[in-house]
Fold:
Amino acid sequence: MKALVIGGTGVIGTGIVKQFFARGAEVTSFDRHRRPGLVPPELKRIRGDRTKFRAFERTFESSRYDVVVDLVCFTPEEAESTCRTFGGRCGHLQFCSTVCVYGTKIPPTVLVDEQFPAEPETPYGRAKLACERIFERAARERSFALTVFRPSNTYGPGGPIIDQLEIDGVAWDRVVRGLPVFCAGDGLGLWQPTHRDDCGKLFAYAALNPRTYGETYNATGDAVCTWREYYRRAARALDTRAKLIFVPATWLTFAPGDRFSFLREISQFHGAYSSAKAKSHVPEFRATIDFETGARATFADLRRRGAWRSSESDPDYQRLVDRALAQGFRVVEA
Structure:
């Protein structure tokens, strides 16, 4: 199998590349060459910027691949460029979309499956859904077979561990120092982290599988946890315990500087999804890495790369904590 992964050195891309190699594939990554220490030596690499459409399309005008995985397509213009580049030049195109296309409604069964209406409420979700539609049109025109994947919170070495408020904040340094961190509401909102290697199995083993052509899959593991439990497990991965301050999400989203946009747009809502369809169609896809184990390796990688964020560089967070405590919010152990 000859595979191209656009964005093959990112967090999800690294997991996909690893699983492609497990299948014995010949793998090439198109990326910006910003992660030299995380790349396996057997990975072929092409350097470039996919937003420079002319150069991107010329790079592949003489190439053919069995499968192309597009991980860094975020706008309709980028989707159109991918269609021009690989239409008729690849057998199977896999598009990495997002669970954000579902919006914030909750089904009666709580877990969102692929039949749930796509009603995105954020610019990111709306743009990804528009990309899905462009790829679906190209597939109907027989440019390539298409599979769409919708990951949720995918983590692993090479990237940060999100907290509920921010994608790459100082919460974990505060936890290590024994300082309290914020948790929105009562900490009972649902969240679903999936390790990059588990997510990568779905992409790699769906490749050239006719059962997956024309299908859309939630690319998530099975384990759903509350935010309270999420902080508890992350703290265990840091060999400590987390101290939480439960405050309303609206209290946090009106913080000075509008800094908690991740909470406002995504994580204040339930994020729980069913991957039953994916497991049925791709039997090799099973999530086996528990969050505590994956978080421990990811935290160690952050320190090794010098990417660990010190809370001493963020006095604004402490000022918000002082304000919350002055207003009577209590500190509790996760």
Observations:
- The chain has a mean pLDDT of 96.
